[in-house]
Amino acid sequence: MLRVETPFALTAPAAAVRARPILPLEARGLVLETAGRRLVDGLDLELQPGALTVILGPNGAGKSLALRLLHGLLRPTAGAITWAGRAADADVRRRQAMVFQKPVLLRRSTAANLDYVLKRQSLSRSRRRARLQELLTLGNLLHLARVPARLLSGGEQQRLAVVRALACEPEVLFLDEPTASLDPAATLAIEALIERAHGAGTAILLVTHDLGQARRLAREVVFLHQGRAVEKAEAAAFFAGPRSAIARAYLAGDLAL
């Protein structure tokens, strides 16, 4: 299996050594309604420290909406989201990050996209320069440091988006189909970054339609259907034999309605 190897080793997230934890993340009875339609319907979900959880489900199951609710981009119509028993606050928001299917990048160079995040941290100038080099190396982007982000390939842009998210050393990383439309080499490069982040202690919640990717990465699977969590199981158990008919149909490649 192809893996991106660099001399840079991620360290444990800074949040992991802080006195006040933010995990577990718990969602209870989440509802999201718009224009009279219930898109998320009583969703229960939790993320424990050190998790690498993959959310699966057919189109329209509410996967991306669930991620946006948990990240705080959307406000639920009903239900509650707690981080280690408390509502999200500025501290919680600083200690999580999200990467989208389509990279959201600044109209600046590759290096400037990373430096934008680093400038918001309490780093000395020398440490910031060193950290920038580390991140560029981690993403295999050092040779592209001065290239405008908009001129990068799709895979290069997504690597930049992931390492920029990792620049703030998040304790929780949300990933919404980060390898959709990427070729196999670019996909495996992103997966290598995800594995490195998880190995350093970052909890991962990943939405994907790629069953191969889910099998490669997931330690735990949550299966959504019609806005509800139908199943939650260890990855090996889920792929060996889902309990629900809808999940079995999904794995078999049947249309899941």
UniProtKB/TrEMBL annotation:
Keywords per UniProt: ATP-binding, Nodulation, Nucleotide-binding, Transport
Q: Which GO terms describe its molecular function?
A: ATP binding
Query: Domain ABC transporter, which positions?
Result: 25-251
Q: Which residues form a coiled coil?
A: none
One matching Pfam family: ABC_tran
Record SMART domains: AAA (SM00382)
SUPFAM superfamilies assigned: P-loop containing nucleoside triphosphate hydrolases
State the InterPro entries in the record.
AAA+_ATPase (IPR003593), ABC_transporter-like_ATP-bd (IPR003439), ABC_transporter-like_CS (IPR017871), ABC_transporter_ATP-binding (IPR050763), P-loop_NTPase (IPR027417)
Lineage: superkingdom: Bacteria
Q: Which PANTHER family match?
A: ABC TRANSPORTER ATP-BINDING PROTEIN, ABC TRANSPORTER ATP-BINDING PROTEIN NATA
Family assignment from sequence similarity: Belongs to the ABC transporter superfamily.
Q: What is this protein called?
A: ATP-binding cassette domain-containing protein
Q: To which species is this protein native? A: Benzoatithermus flavus
